[in-house]
Amino acid sequence: MSALRRSAVSLSVAALVLASLSACSANTPDPAPSAADLVSAINSGDFSTIQFASSDAAAAAKTQETAFGPMGEVKHTSTVSSVAKDEEETDGVKTATADITTVWDLDDSDNDLSYTTKAVWEFDQDSEAWKLRFDPTVLAPDLEADGYLKASNQVAERGSITAAGGEKIVTNRPVIRVGIDKTHTEEANWEESATKLAKLVDIDEDQYVKTVLAAGDKAWVQAIVLRDDSSRDVTDAEINEIPGATFQEDEIPLAPTRSFARPLLGTVGEATEEIIKKSDGKIKSGDQVGMSGLQASYNDTLSGTDGITVSRYNKDDESQAELFTAEPVDGKDVETTLDMDLQQTADELIEDADSNSAIVAIRPSDGSVLAASSGPVSSGLNTALQGSYAPGSSFKVISALSMLREGSTPTSKVQCPASTVVDGKTFKNYDGYPAAKLGTIALSEAIAQSCNTVFVNQGSEIGGKKLAEAAAALGLTGEDGTGVGAVLGSVPDDSEGTTQAANMIGQGVVEASPLGMATVVASVQAKSTVQPKLVVSPEPKEPAKPASELTEKEAEDLATMMGEVIDHGTLKDLNTLSGSKIIGKSGTAEYDSERNAHAWAIVAQGDIAVAAFVEDGEGGAQSAGPLVKAMLEAAAK
Fold first, then answer.
1. Do 535 and 411 touch, CB atoms closer than 8 A?
2. Do residues 307 and 378 share a domain?
3. In this structure, are 140 and 199 located in the same domain?
4. Secondary structure of 144-196 in the HEC alphabet?
5. 54-66 per-residue burial string, b: 16 or more CB within 10 A, e: under 16
6. 522 and 411 both lie in a single domain
7. Which range of residues forms the domain containing residue 630?
8. How far apart are CA 25 and CA 551, in angstroms?
9. How high is the pLDDT of residue 280?
10. Are 384 and 488 in contact (CB under 8 A)?
């Protein structure tokens, strides 16, 4: 055969081979669906739809469970970044390679762990399918057999709630966690030990015994957390005498005492399932969060952001590489205007009250809430700032202002009959009203002696709108600027007839909180409308100014009349106190047919204004009067 012919034959054969290869390559299916199936499997943990060149679905799933399990509740998402057939065959086998990007959502920021791995498929001619060459590096870079990724949290320091000037109220304080360690005693002792320990620390014996017996054989079962200070009356020796009983030292955020502003400050505890669910992943199981009060309202500010480190480990639990680190960001403090000494005094006065009670103290010059105490402490109710009750005769300060605005003065003569009738309803003065103060008296004397009929008879002339305006001028119905979701008061502007008559003496449909009534007397003392504030950082929204504001002359006239309440009126027990002039007003509001009544007293002296409330009291002067007197005495020290 000639050289030319041999050359032509060779070219023909080469062309046929190339054509065959091109046809085969063209018939190889797209590997993209296989890559999509893989990331779906990585995301779900179910590899049953994957065809394997090595390994199998069960082995791959186990490898992933081992690799990703220690990451706990941290969520991951894998996606295909790119996928293509490889240009060159490997040992005569066609292959395809995909870049798989996996992102771990470590917290609620955009700061996530992200990495890219490679996955390789080989084309099986017989089944005409792409089959995955699976190994651990498909899941994470450089991951070895039986290796894993693990996230470790570094808990952020929780911020403190501070008093005025930055003095810490709630901060980490020493405690002991008391419980039964079932590994420290025989099974025969578990029930008896649990009973003895429950009795020692004064918790429900039956419930604790059930909890201990239901726990695992090696469990430590907490009974109670006790302050580790002078208030602890359970000794180490008493705990250690009980077989299996033990305690662990710890620190948790606490106020100075168990009762200190407790309903206001709130508590911190382990996140419940409901809290975790509502947080959309921000709060995890085991996190300490605010459960109530300021701790709950400002949890995001106080809690900060935990740090997190993700490392790769080998099968021997040795760290091989640190893949991600974010340092913890400590929480910020929440600063309040509270005065530690005054708050402590208020708490002690009503800690064991027989009914819901409250004391609120305000600095009139700037509206700072110095104390906001609610009792009894066991109720957990924030009566001081969120209770809403009929204010009784303490409301007559507002009614008197509405009369001043209609032309009356402290010396104006008014009629105080023993009883009066409005639209068929009879109103009378309180039992024991002095007969000598009936008839024609000065408006200031009507305030001093708390004559009901004077104000009832003025109801229709004043009208609902003007009474509501007077309430606004004294700060009772302003916007809340405390930063704690407080309630001030409510005075409808459309009341008529007997309802309006009853409103004039603080009953009917008007309502006030202890904070609201403290604001009323603070406004008189400041000679301008006071808007109370409690949280100063983070700075709350500035409340709008009331449409009707208190004038200096109006405040002076009110102060003149309220001074007579102290001088010789219903709060004359306070006139023995030394210092500057005291102004005040007592109040009693019957709330049922059995004549049970709320007791109120509001006073001011110098730069402090105080309101005291007792839900079930004998009368304003008798039940609330001693409370405001004690607060003024404490403020004078």
1. no
2. no
3. no
4. CCCCEEEEEEECCCCCCEECHHHCEEEEEEEEEEEEEEHHHCCHHHHHHHHHH
5. ebebeebbebbeb
6. yes
7. 340-636
8. 93
9. 77
10. no
CA 462 to chain centre: 42
pLDDT of residue 27: 74
**Distance between terminal CA atoms of the chain?**
127
Residues of the chain scoring pLDDT < 50: 1-25
Q: How many whole angstroms separate alpha carbon 516 and alpha carbon 472?
A: 11
Q: H/E element holding 95?
A: strand 95-105
Please report the pLDDT score of residue 12 as a whole number.
Answer: 37
Please give the Cα distance from 385 to 519 (Å, whole number): 11
Of 587, 582, 478, 570, nearest to 524 by C-alpha is 582
Angle formed by the axes of helices 625-636 and 340-350, nearest 10°: 150
Last residue of a domain, one of 292, 326, 360: 326
Q: Pull the structure tokens for residue 410.
A: 């402290």
Strands 168-181 and 245-254 turn out to be: antiparallel
Q: Among the three residues 295, 326, 357, which one is the final residue of a domain in this structure? A: 326
Question: Which residues have a Cβ under 8 Å from the Cβ of 352 and sit 6 or more positions away?
Answer: 375, 376, 377
CA dihedral of residues 177, 179, 182, 184 (deg, nearest 10): 70
Q: What is the CATH number of the domain that holds 219?
A: 3.90.1310
* CATH number reported for the structural domain that contains residue 63 in this entry: 3.10.450.100
Tell whether 515 and 410 lie within a shared domain.
Answer: yes
Chain segment 377-391, per-residue pLDDT in tens: 888 899 999 999 999
Same domain? For 195 and 72 the reply is no
Closest by CA to 389, choosing from 536, 216, 477, 513, is: 513
d(CA 629, CA 586): 12
- Asked if residue 212 belongs to a domain, the reply is yes
Q: What is the CATH number of the domain that holds 421?
A: 3.40.710.10
Domain tally for the chain?
A: 3
